[in-house]
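If it is no trouble, might I ask you for a protein's amino acid sequence along with its backbone structure tokens?
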Amino acid sequence: MPCIPKKTFDLILSLECHFLAQVKANCRKLWESIALYTALRSPISTCEYYQDTNGRQVYRRVELYDNFAELPKGWNGIQRLVKVRRWGFRDGKAFEERTFFVLSKPIDSAAVVAQGIQGHWGIENALHWIKDVNMGEDDTSITNPATAAILIYLNNTAYNILKLAGHKPIKDTFAKIANKVNELYRLFQCVNET
């Protein structure tokens, strides 16, 4: 996955909107600056909580920081830095990880930011994971941007038709209807009737 373009943040701010974005390790200089700053400073707010769902016991600590860090040039509008530490057990195996986020709105409550991050993961788990894993969007070898856009539009259409027809968009569903033109056509007809 490519690094978040700096111009994306600038565009969001020019529209007088705000962002909460995860900083991945492939934005190396930004990631390292935030990791160092949060290791040496005290947060302005913290929030800890525990979840026990789907065979996972996860503790989360969200730390919120004012942004007085010397970030790499061009990362505009970042008001808050966020460090999230997760630890616990997934399928019986211990794990620990940390992630970083940046925030353009000067929120002072780590609990509010934690809700925003959880909302992001709800979208990631409900939609992006399905598209990445079940529809293979991350594994595609398509390099032409126009062709890739067409594939994304077709995948979005398929996803929405399956949901409207009452199917769960999981691998079994895709396997059941793959190469079955009559079944696919019937699903299109059902959607048009609603």
Summary: The longest helix spans residues 110-134. Residues 137-193 form one domain. The mean pLDDT is 84.
